[in-house]
Fold this protein.
Amino acid sequence: MSGQELVFRTDNLTKVYQTGEVKVFALAGVDLELFSGELAVLLGPSGSGKSTLLNILGGLDHATDGRVWFHDLELTDLGDRGLTRFRRDHVGFVFQFYNLVPSLTARENVQLVTDVARDPMTPEEALERVGLSHRLDHFPAQLSGGEQQRVAIARAVAKRPEVLLCDEPTGALDSKTGIQVLEVLKHLNEELGTSTVVITHAAEIRKMAHRVIWFQDGRIANTEINDERLEPAEIDW
Amino acid sequence: MTTVEALDRKLLRDFIRLWPQFLAISLVLAAGVAVLLMSFGMSAALEDTRKTYYERNRFADIFVDARSVPISFVEIIRRIDGIEAVEARVTTFTTLDIPGKIDTTVAYVASLAPAGPVLNRPTLRRGQWPDPQSTGEVVLNAPFAEANDLWPGDRFTATLNGVKRDLTVVGWALSPEFIYTIGPGSLIPDDEDYGIVWMPERALAALLDRTGAFDNLAVKLRPSARPKPIIDMLDQLLEPYGSWGAIGRDEQTSNAFIDAEITQLRALAYILPPVFLGITIFLVNMVIGRIVALERAEIGLLKALGYSDIAILFHYLLLAGLVAVCGVALGYAVGSWLSYGLARLYADFLKFPYLIYTVSWNAYVVSGLLGLFAASAGAARAAWSAARLAPATAMSPTAPPRFRRNWIDVALRRMHVSQPTMMILRSLIRWPVRAAMSVLGLSLAVAILVSSNFFPDSLDLIIDTGFHQSNRQHVVLFFNDTMDESALEDAARLPGVLQVEGQQYLPVILRHEHRQKRAVIEARRPGNDLSRIVSAEGEIVDAPPGGIMLSERLAAQLGLAVGDMVEVEFLGNRKGAYDLPVTRLVTQYFGLGAYMDQETADRLFQQAPQVSVINVTVDPARNAAFQAALKELPRLGGRAMMVENRRGFEETISENILVSTMVYALLGILITVGVAYNGARIQLSERARELASLRILGFTRGEVAYILMGEIMLLALIAQPLGWWIGWAVAKLMTDSFTSDLYAIPMVLKVSTFSSASLIVLGAAMASVLVVRRRLDRIDLVSVMKTRE
């Protein structure tokens, strides 16, 4: 990945949750670099710190200690307003449970973002990229799980974000639908050059990544670069 | 046993966790309970106190005024079947000259029987009774004595039968006959300007040349007797003595006023509490419904653990029961305090010698049960649905709300509304009943404010037409006898007098078909400038010659229209009955006016022009000299200072209005907060996930808050026109129901009445949702997004 532009850099990133008497180190000093156009998969057991890292990178959470930069912007310095701005302009999120607005159609859910973004694609284009041109005017309750997740992805990428952060995007889906979703993610990563970070419990998914990062007890246990990547359709889990 | 306790603990913790919502509901319920207690408590206290006062002081049942009736009539009347006791008195109106006081004061002087009155007995509050043989000892009614600083031992003079007499105060008293004292020509009681003077019969009769005669009769009936036939008999007997006609308690000024107060207090109990109880039902329904929706999985678990349907049903009913207990307890506390405090205040205001305040357990039981009923009725649907939930269904997540495209969507798309606005509108369309109920609740808050705030403007109009347009004189002079018109010239020569006009008051009984009504005809010259007849439309009218002109209210009561003939029986000094045509009707706010052209009256009685009332305007710089001259005027029976009357009226009204406006504003705010706060909390609970996801998409706090606040504020806006309309309808109902013989309340609704009601409700709604917005600002984005709903 060397020679590519640095998107995220963290320095000794630490996150401590204090619950009563007990201190839990969700992140215990993480140093990480993510590059533009990269598709990284984060693996590790529950509670190993993957989601905490993703939330801090995405500006949803504050670190207890250490620093994070997005390009030259230091996120650890930003307040709520700055982080909101950062999310609005640069980050797309995809969650396990889609989180679509039930009272808005697929098109309107995407429009939520395109209405406020600086240089968005049209909702129709975003939905076409995830293969849902024929479901524009359907409400979430009228869509299957995989379709809902694809609307969520369209909504995340419609603003042409530099990074796409996905927390268990296939967690609630069966493997066939999950593969469709992964294909969309890969396709967008290649076509739009969006840096993509995917958290998953399905270890097989690592085979489609440029880089795989293993977490253990709030630290990076291991990093691995795939010389050869598999197509989502070739993955079996 | 332990399982039940665990469920109870859950109940208490839920209650504590959701305390702000339950508090908002409890306050609404408490307002309903408090108003009910207050209204019942106060009206019962007034009624009980009055009843006891009347019994202890032997308040009469029938009253009649005449002139110099031979004392032998007392025995004749006492023998009439059904009469238990008779009290005959010598009475007169007079003017007093109180040392150090510039203005003349009007008083009603009544004789005290040598052995003490058998009816309408005054209660001595200070000093002693006058010696029956004394010639100058008097007892004053306590409020008048207090207002004029007249203590036992103090002296003043009264013009009696044209002669000034020195009198000495020996005591203060209160009488059930004069709880509410109002001077001739005045609109409100004025303790400083109008008083009651009791004087030994022997002395007063001598001064007024009434030895062996009486002017006023009070009659007590046996419990079984009906007043009507006896009133008719008395009228027949006393007609030759200038009787204005006997009246029952219902027409006795003081008693009628207290009747009206009690009726109004009662009415309060039937208007406001149902509104508060209805809103309680709606709020409990909304909140418990949401709790049940959120606790589906827990309900399933409890059932899987073996809890019965009944246990679940009671669990949620009990939660509502706790709200009811809090609301009722709070309502009891506030209601008891208000009820006793206000009853005390009323008793002081009305100068009851004591207050009989018995706690009405019925009111507590009824309001408590109503509170419990409202809460359980509100919770019933949700609790029932929780009880019927099958465990397996309960533990699986609810299906997402189904939204479907319809014609409204097409319209909204065309309008290019933003997505957040679309979210607001779709939510309203998806839950129309809830939205409608919220709108109704908020509109009732507006209605309460509109229907209570229109009074000041109505009274402004009454004051304007009553004083500024109709009665432009500074002073009205009343005389004990009618006089020929030369009296006007005498009045014009009084110092400081600028303008003089005369009028004649003719007491009559009007009859048409089977209906009859006692009234006073004002005979006047056309074109009078000081005292004018102004219609409700603002037109200045005169009675056409050759008949009588009636106010519309009086005509309606007699079933008369223009052109009909009415039988007019003259009472007092003018005797005889005549059939006269109704020549015109006039709409008026005050009184049951009847008018006649002076020349028509003169022709009818074949007399020279007469006056019994003189209206004057006075140069303010010479008021002292004018007042001093009045004190010397022999036949003056009374005078009404219109300027003071006006000021007193405005002051009394504005004080009352300030208090009641604040109370109603508080009630309106309570409703608004109850509806808006709970609505916003439920919105937040239902939409937490959506709103958090918008925050993650990069929406600012303000943009997200727009969705939460927008829906409630939109409902509040929609509620305004409905609230205005309901307020208008209630105001109409109130003006209609307050219309009595004395006055009609015009309905004056100004833009400012509507706008201030709207501002208060929108402001309270905004404050409520802003409190909820603070919760939204603190929402934990990460944890909301990671959980499945």
Notes: The mean pLDDT of chain B is 87. Residues 642-696 of chain B form the longest helix (55 residues). Chain B touches chain A at residues 399-405, 418-420, 422-423, 426-427, 430, 689-690, 692-701, 703, 781-782, 785-789 (CB under 8 Å). The longest strand of chain B covers residues 497-512.
